[in-house]
Amino acid sequence: MKKITYLILLISTFSFISCNRYKGNNMKAPEYGIVTDTIILKGIEIPLDTILFRYAYRMRVQGNKAVIMDLHNTDYYYHVFSYPDFTYISSFGKRGEGPTEMIYAANIRFVEDNAVWVLDDGKGRMYKYSDISVNDTPKLVKDLLLDRKLYRSLDFDIEDTTVVIPDYSGENRFSWASLSTGKIIRKTERIPISESNQFKDNMSAIAQGWNSFISLSPDKQKLVTVTQFGDRIDIYDLSSHKHIGKLGMHGEPKFYVTPEGYGLPDDKICYYDVQVTDKFIYAIYDGRSFRDISKLANSYKQGGKILRVFNFKGELISNYILDRRIVGFYVDEKTGLLFGLDVNADEQIVKYII
């Protein structure tokens, strides 16, 4: 935890060095407005029988089971639980450098009732596991080497036989690769930066500054992105090829390019996670500046306290204000429950009634 805090403080310190900065022209995208429908929620911690988590980062739910990804676990990256009571079942995705072990887990997605894909950015590989259930032990069924042109693969989602990954080369916004061969099939969209002439010499740096979290709708017809270092949401309709981009009050990502060509954030931490359902888009938001975070030192807590709810026009329709900061979440619309992941606490799974 201290290492992460130190990293953020370093970013904050370096952001005041004289480098090439990009503040953006926020008049080129419509704002999604401010809503008065704000609901304050108090969470209930869910205690576990065993100590598992160091940094519970992502939660995926399918039927009666949940898988939680632990970003900094020393043994296994993924843990299976019964849902919604969160009784521990098993772990998989062993950390290490050996065959089928993982160096740096990036995310996890269910693709069938009892199967998931996971991504190891450290090795540039994806692994498919079956038997994800309350009665079985996860089994590795496929080891896929990804195209070497894919790098810094920090998020992904699955559309049938392809995987979509943010394109950190900056050439496009998304890369689509085959789940059979791992090869890139196509690239789509452009990073919607307001000053497009900035791409010429700093494409990769801009992609880093515009680092985004992604989520496909359940019917796989809409792809949604939210920016980690900017107040922006984009909705791509994959059938009609229409694109809606909206800005919040904090504007598009602001970053600077180092002499070495890296794009580092220069203003705020904004979104942490996004989930698309059949009805709405949910995203957890922070909004604190690096300058303010640097003043907190060891009292800094990671995560966002605002759960934003959007419709598919990109309009902000409501805000939930949480009693603690979370980095990942899952909204269960059928039961009216929100489960959050609080990396700042000992008991990291928190339940809210929404």
Give an overview in words.
- Helices cover 9% and strands 43% of the residues.
- It has helices spanning 2-14, 199-209, 290-296; strands at 20-22, 38-41, 44-45, 56-62, 65-70, 76-82, 88-94, 105-112, 115-120, 125-130, 139-145, 157-159, 162-166, 174-178, 184-188, 212-216, 222-227, 232-237, 243-247, 255-257, 263-265, 271-276, 281-285, 304-310, 316-326, 328-332, 337-341, 349-353.
- The chain has a single domain, classed as Lipocalin.
- The two termini are 30 Å apart.
- The chain has three helices and 28 strands.
- Mean pLDDT is 90; it is low at 1-18.
- The strands form seven sheets. The protein has a five-stranded mixed sheet, with no helix packed on it. Strands 3-28-27-26 form a four-stranded antiparallel sheet, with no helix packed on it.
Shape: globular
Strand content: 35-45%
User: Mean of residue pLDDT?
Assistant: 90
Rounded to the nearest angstrom, the radius of gyration is 19 Å
* Low-confidence segments: 1-18
Helicity range: under 10%
Main-sheet strand order equals: 2-25-24-23-22
Instruction: State the total count of DSSP E strands.
Output: 28
CATH architecture field: Beta Barrel
SSE class: mainly beta
The tally of structural domains comes to 1
Number of helices: 3
CATH class: Mainly Beta
Q: Using the coordinates shown, work out and report the CATH topology.
A: Lipocalin
Give the end-to-end Cα distance, rounded to a whole number of Å: 30 Å
- What about the largest sheet? 5 strands, mixed
